[in-house]
Specification:
Blueprint (H helix, E strand, L loop, with lengths): L9 H10 L2 H14 L2 H11 L15 H13 L19 H23 L2 H20 L20 H15 L2 H15 L4 H11 L2 H11 L2
Helix pairs in contact: 2-5, 4-5, 4-6, 5-6, 5-7, 6-7, 7-8, 7-9, 8-9, 8-10, 9-10
Length: 222
């Protein structure tokens, strides 16, 4: 028997939202789009957004990889790059484009995590490859993908790396030989979340085959 979800104190939630930074209100609303039933979402959006009639072909029934590739293409052509004039008062702010990039990136990573549990691991593997390459470009600052008023990077995005890494290791364990599994696992950990290296290595070891685990131990002990 499932445990009932406790009722949300809506008054306290509204009070908390009033104290939140605008960027977190944005992230919360962005995630709510996927959670609201269609009728309630349409009614809410109609009050605030002028919507064009929905085109059934536009983005409908796309696979995970197709959605990720569309996001990557939009980001690399500058679709999320929005700058602003920086001063001492706004140097920690995020532009609307940067907020949108973070929200969409996290949404797709969460989808990768979910589909790794029950989906096509080969497709999740390909999708994560695309997202990781895009995030690496952000950290390298080689492309005008997102705008940071001050020093910024992927470390600011609030990504749930333990969950993402578990999905990644699960994909690698099914698609890679031991040497590639160990190398790519370590490279990804060190590239994005080295501060939790030991935790991620342990997670990778649990999901590895015995030969993969042996190679991972060999590399981490070098």
């Amino acid at each position: 028997m499932s445990t009932p979800t406790p009722a949300t104190d809506r008054g306290k939630l509204r009070a908390a939202i009033r104290k939140m930074d605008d960027q977190y209100v944005f992230f919360m609303l962005y995630e709510a789009i996927d959670l609201l039933p269609e009728a309630e979402l349409a009614a809410l959006a109609a009050r605030f957004v002028r919507m064009e009639p929905r085109c059934p072909e536009a983005g409908q029934n796309r696979s995970l990889l197709q959605d990720v590739q569309a996001f990557d293409a939009e980001a690399r052509r500058g679709g999320f790059y929005v700058s602003f004039s920086v001063n001492s008062k706004n140097c920690t702010d995020l532009s609307k484009g940067t907020r949108a990039f973070i929200a969409e990136c996290c949404r797709l990573l969460n989808r990768c995590v979910a589909e790794a549990e029950a989906g096509d691991l080969a497709e999740v593997h390909s999708a994560l490859n695309v997202i990781f390459a895009l995030l690496q470009s952000v950290d390298e600052g080689n492309d005008e993908i997102v705008f940071f008023a001050d020093e910024g990077g992927v470390w600011m995005f609030g990504i749930d790396w333990p969950a993402v890494m578990r999905a990644w290791f699960k994909c690698l364990s099914k698609t890679c030989d031991p040497a590639e599994f160990a190398r790519r696992a370590i490279d990804t950990i060190d590239g994005f979340d080295r501060t939790r290296r030991a935790e991620h290595i342990e997670a990778a070891s649990r999901l590895a085959t015995p030969p993969q685990r042996e190679e991972l131990e060999r590399l981490t002990n070098c």
